[in-house]
Amino acid sequence: MPKRILQGVVVSSANDKTVVVRVERRIKHPLLDKIIRRSKKYHAHDESNQYQVGDVVRIEECRPISKLKSWRVVGGEA
Predict the structure, then answer these.
(1) Which burial class, exposed, middle or buried, applies to 72 when counting CB atoms under 10 A from its CB (0-12, 13-18, 19+)?
(2) Spatial distance between the Cα atoms of 16 and 66, rounded to a whole number of angstroms
(3) Are 71 and 18 in contact (CB under 8 A)?
(4) 2-58 pLDDT, tens digit each
(5) Which phi-psi region, left, alpha or beta, contains residue 25 (left: φ > 0; alpha: ψ -120 to 50)?
(6) What count of Cα atoms within 13 Å lies in the side-chain half-sphere of residue 69?
(7) 61-74 pLDDT, tens per residue?
(8) Where are the alpha helices (DSSP H) in 1-78?
(9) Alpha-carbon distance 21 to 7, whole Å?
(10) C-alpha dihedral (32, 33, 36, 38), degrees to nearest 10
C-alpha cells in the first residue's frame, strides 16, 4: 500500500525533532454549494530541526514514532 503524502504549513517547531504541520483541504458545502476550507494539524518527525514556522513542507505517513507522531517530513517546497 502506498504511503500518503500531504503538503502543509509549519505552525509550531517548539518541540525537539518535531514540527506541527497544518494541512488544509477545500471541500464543497453540500447545501450551500460554496467552497469551504477545512484544516487539520499533524505532528511530524523532523530529525535535523531544520524547518521553522511558516515553511511549506511535505509530510509522509510512516510507522508510529511516538504517541502523536506517525508522519515524517520529507522535504520543503520552494
Answers:
(1) middle
(2) 13
(3) no
(4) 889 999 999 999 999 999 999 999 999 999 999 999 999 999 999 999 999 999 999
(5) beta
(6) 15
(7) 999 999 999 999 99
(8) none
(9) 8
(10) 90
| CA atoms of 52 and 19, how far apart (whole Å) | 8
Pairing relationship of beta strands 69-76 and 35-45 according to DSSP bridges: parallel
Please report the domains of the chain, with CATH numbers, ordered by start residue: 5-76 (2.40.50.140)
Global pTM reads 0.89
DSSP state of 4: P
d(CA 20, CA 52): 10
Owner of C-alpha cell 502523536 = 68
The pLDDT, as a whole number, for residue 62 is 95
At residue 32, the pLDDT reads 95
Q: How many residues does the chain have?
A: 78
